[in-house]
Design goal:
The protein is built from nine helices and ten strands. It is α/β, with parallel strands linked by helices and about 230 residues long. The protein has a single domain, classed as Rossmann fold. The strands form two sheets. It has a six-stranded mixed beta sheet, with helices on both faces. Strands 2-1-4-5 form a four-stranded antiparallel beta sheet, with helices on one face. Helix 3 packs parallel to helix 6 and helix 7 packs parallel to helix 8. The protein starts with a strand and ends with a helix.
């Protein structure tokens, strides 16, 4: 059964339609990339799941159940964690306070303060620091750690490599593959071809608010794939 499915979703900001019949699905342990040029609706997919945009037609399903009234908390309550573009760190809270926000759903699983800090030791070292004081790479670790604290079945990351040093991107790729191998679904919304190819097994290309192409990463050449995401 799919963890998350979009079925012919048409979504609007106010009266402006951004998504024009988007359909895709992600199963347990799958690592999937959602790609496309800037402005084609990738972040709108996340905002639709989080109840920010209005669905005009179609529906979103979580574990096969159609969600008729998506709110900002719906995804988290149903085992989906989102790492937003820009990371969404609460800058006037400490690192530890930010992490504890991720546990607010009360879902049980392997991820706790101890296990997240074991994964990212810098978060233990900086636990009393304000989020504002962290470097970009440390903020990304905090954002992912906070998402894991919810013990999700599916982790969605919107442009996670943005502003990161190459060595941090390498570590991010290794982590996402490991999480997928452990059974967590991964939806990667990204522009970096290198990160996508290291992490994802399948892809969907958005163009003009709809899925224009999809398939296994192994079946598409690097040059053709690059054309789908060129700015």
């Amino acid at each position: 059964m799919s963890l998350l499915s979009f079925h012919d979703v048409h979504a609007l900001y106010g009266q402006a339609r951004i998504l024009n019949g988007v359909s895709f699905d992600i199963g347990a342990g799958e690592r999937v990339a959602l790609v496309g040029r800037n402005g084609v609706g990738k972040t709108t997919v996340v905002n639709t799941l989080c109840g920010v945009t209005r669905i005009e037609r179609g529906h979103v399903a979580i574990r096969g159940k159609a969600m008729r009234d998506l709110q900002r908390y719906t995804a988290a309550q149903n085992g989906i964690s989102v790492v937003l573009q820009g990371r969404g760190i609460i800058t006037n809270l400490t690192v530890e306070e930010n992490l504890l926000l991720g546990a607010a759903t009360g879902r049980r699983g392997p991820w706790s303060l101890a296990s997240v800090k074991q994964l990212f030791p810098i978060l233990e070292e900086r636990k009393a620091s304000l989020g504002l004081a962290l470097s970009g790479g440390q903020q990304q670790m905090l954002a992912i750690g906070r998402a894991l604290m919810a013990n999700p079945d599916l982790l969605i990351l919107d442009e996670p490599s943005e502003g990161l040093a190459p060595v941090i991107v390498d570590e991010l790729a290794e982590l996402l593959v490991r999480l997928g191998n452990d059974g967590m679904g991964i939806l990667l919304i990204e522009q970096s071809v290198g990160l996508i190819r290291r992490v994802a097994e399948r892809f969907y290309v958005l163009s003009k608010g709809a899925v224009a192409a999809s398939g296994p990463l192994a079946d598409i050449g690097a040059e053709e794939f690059q054309q789908h995401i060129a700015i």
